[in-house]
């Protein structure tokens, strides 16, 4: 999709600007330019980057999510596509996640696909607390030799909890486990985020993630997201963040997000 030399050049160009300044400039710009139609909508929800928010899809509404991450320097990148569907109301949600990975020297290919089920255990969209445990089957669709997959069937579970502290501040908490079906290895993950609703259509975000498989690394992910709402029911949420890898030699990364959410014929 892109040459290594072109990627290195682009990495130097965006890397020359301090990421915090870029995020602050972006947030200011969208506070000024956010559309009047979007400003009349409810607060943005279910659009975090590294953290799961515990809100299942409403009945009759489907969400399409694309994410892109590119470490600073080099040509590596990864892209993920997730589609979330409610099943007979908000209580049950079905989804899948398809990753595409590119690594220096190993080309581009499909990663391990996830098939997901989430149950809305607590919350109905109007309460401060929501809890929605997820169970996923990890399919060995990625090449183990090329570093894009585990080479075996796996299972993953995550427990997202979301709590709205005030009209301006929401928090999200994750605890998960991933089981490798071949080796039997069990990896844990913990995460948390705070969402500052500076405007009904613009949020500033701070996420942090730890995984036992990389226990010397903590990810810190400050970012911004904004929403455009349309009379048809379509909501478009773009977002941008900069991921700091703390405590190891892992590279920091640029993170991009784009979500489309719209009504469909109710299942």
Proper CATH architecture: Beta Barrel
Number of strands: 15
Helicity level:
10-25%
Label the structural class.
mainly beta
Cα(first) to Cα(last) distance is 37 Å
| Computed CA radius of gyration, to the nearest angstrom | 19 Å
* Biggest sheet details: 12 strands, antiparallel, barrel
The ordered string of helix (H) and strand (E) elements is HHHEEEEEEEEEEEEEEE
| CATH superfamily label | monomeric porin ompg
Which spans of ≥5 residues are poorly predicted at pLDDT below 50?
1-40
In short:
With 267 residues, the chain is mainly beta. The chain contains 3 helices and 15 strands.
How would you characterize this protein structure?
The protein is built from three helices and 15 strands. With 267 residues, the chain is mainly β. The chain has one domain: monomeric porin ompg (Porin). A hairpin with a 5-residue loop joins strand 9 and strand 10.
